[in-house]
Every structure is written in C-alpha cells, then in structure tokens.
Amino acid sequence: MVTTIILSILKILGIILLILLGIILMLLLLILFVPVRYWITVHRKTDEEVPVVVDLKVTWLLHILNVAFSYPAAAYVRVRVFCFTVFRSDKASKDKSEAGKASTEKEVISESKEEKEEQAEEQTREQAKEQAKEQAEKREEAETEKQTEEQKKGQNEAEEDWEDAADEESSPKIFDFFKKLWSAIKNIKYTILRICDKIKHIVKNIRYYIKIIQSDTFKRAWKVCSGQVLLLLKAFAPKKLRGTLLIGTGDPASTAQVLAVYGMLYPLIGNHIDITPDFEQAIIEGDLLARGRITVFRLLKTAWIVFFNRDLRRLIKLFKREAA
C-alpha cells in the first residue's frame, strides 16, 4: 500500500517535471526561431507644418511584445506585453517632475529652519572674525619689525657680494661660452638619437602588422568573419522596401553625382526606390517604407562562429602581444 502511494507520487512529480521541461523547451524554441519583425516609415515634406515624420514599430510573437516609437507626434518609446504597457519613456520624466515638486516643498520648509540657524551662526562668526583681526594686527606689527632688521642685514650682504662679483668679472668668459655650446650640441645629439629610435620602433611595428595581414591565418579569419557579417546583414536587410525621393543639391553637377551613386547602387536597390532629381533648387522630400525580420538564432549562430574561430583568436593574441 505504501509503495503504491510512493510510486504514484513519483509518477506525478515526473509528469510535472516533464511538463516544465516541455514548457522551457518550447519557450527556448520560440525565442530562438520566432522572428522579430520591424516596420519603419519616414515621411518628409518641406511645405507641411511638421516636415519630418518617423514611425518605428518592433513586434514579436503575434504582437505579444510590441515596441513603438514615433516622431514628432508622440516622441517617446512605448513597450507593451499582452496589451499592457510595461514601459513608457515620457512617464519616467513625469514621475521625476512630480518627485521634484515634492522635494521642492520639503526644501522650502527645511530652508526656513536653516535660515534661523544660519543667523545664529553668522553672529558667532562675526565675533570670531573680530578676535582674529585683532590677533592678525598684532602679528603684522611684529613681522614689520623683523623685516626691517632683515633688510638691514641683506643690504650689508649685498654690498659684500657686489665686491666679490666685481673681482670675478675680470676673469675671461670664453670658457663659459664653449661649455654652453658643447652642452647644446650634446642635447641636439640626444634628441636626434631619440627620434631615430622612435622611427625604428614604428617601422618595426608596421612590418610586424604587414606580416600578420599577409599571413594565411589572417586570410582564413577574414574569409570566415566577413562571410558571417554579410550573411547577418542580408538576414537583417528589409524584405520589403519601397520609397520615392525628390532630391536636389542646388548645383546641377553635384546632383548629377548623386544620380551616379544611385546608378551604382541600382543592382542592390532595384526598382524599390524611385529618385527624381531637381537641378534647380536644394530640396530633399519623399516617403520610405521598410519591413524586415531577424531571428535570435541567426544572431547567436554568427556570434558563435566568430567567437570560437581559432584563427581569429590567434590573431587577437598576436595583436595583443605586439601592443604589450
């Protein structure tokens, strides 16, 4: 009887543990593979009251997590979970202002008490200052007497020094001149040697880094890391891109250069963005819509491959060794 009860309890505990493990596994799979979607719209029109309007929205898992930002209609960040607002940047500023008001009221009450205390302290300070002035006047009188005595002694010593200097002026000054010239030449020599040592050290470092860049380790690490970054950018790039742009720099030559750059980027942009040039005035107007998504698994995969790459770790050690 007792064994059956224990077995049934263990069975229930096992089922509960399996359910918990299943929930944890499901949450991990959702976090890793459910994409985070973003949506951006930009509108610019110089004739309107609000020339620039930007709307940004990020959602995850059927809008359970919703992050929104708009400018300038509601210039704040809002985070919602299951239709409940978890965070709003403007609320934090409001709470700070209310706390500031309450603190100002407390400060006014404390200031009235502090004023009374300060008045009493000022009276005691004035009395102490008067006593200090009297003591300082007595000290000044004693110091003036000492200074007069010292001045007399100094005059006598100066007269003796003047007599000694007059005797020394008769000696030749050529030896001092050549001594100063030799010390100046030595200083120039030392500065030139220091500059040469620095140049040698710089050249040595440049050769060391060139060897690293030309090595097979650098080539393999560059191939892996650049490929992973390009894949990440491709995954993060908007899947839907549409826009119209009216652009003019005020100078026909520079406007033509902008169109040349657009022609170079046409294989990447394609027909998604239409650019209309204006060769007469400086203007930038248009609309832009971009939608895309990215998964946490893609980010973690890129970070894992880059972080655990042996060639990249070896390169970091080589760069640190030279910097040390």
Describe the structure in your own words:
The protein is an alpha+beta fold. It has eight helices and eight strands. The protein has helices at 2-33, 89-169, 174-214, 216-236, 252-264, 266-269, 296-307, 310-323, and strands spanning 36-44, 52-60, 65-71, 77-81, 84-88, 240-249, 273-277, 282-294. It has an eight-stranded mixed sheet with strand order 5-4-3-2-1-8-6-7. A hairpin with a 4-residue loop joins strand 2 and strand 3 (65-71). The longest helix has 81 residues, at 89-169. The mean pLDDT is 81.
Short description:
By secondary structure, the chain is an alpha+beta fold. Helix content is 67%, strand content 19%.
In N-to-C order, the SSE pattern is: HEEEEEHHHEHHEEHH
User: What is the helical fraction, as a range of percent?
Assistant: 55-70%
Mean pLDDT: 81
Tell me the overall shape: extended
Separation of the first and last Cα atoms: 73 Å
Largest sheet: 8 strands, mixed
Oligomeric category: single chain
Give me the Rg, rounded.
40 Å
> Beta fraction of the residues?
15-25%
Class by helix and strand content? alpha+beta
Low-confidence stretches: none
Strand order of the largest sheet: 5-4-3-2-1-8-6-7
DSSP E strands, number: 8
Continuous helix count: 8
